[in-house]
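Look at one record.

>
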Amino acid sequence: MVLSTQTANEAAMRVAAKLGFTELERFEDYGAEQWFGVWYPGTPSD
């Protein structure tokens, strides 16, 4: 599963952390810094 949100959206960043998303990259879009993360139900090698 993937998730993308603006880094300025503190509530979304907290939810992503609580759900166990791992940051893959940050990038600029829509005039703001974006956060892109991934969540694996198990380990990536499963």
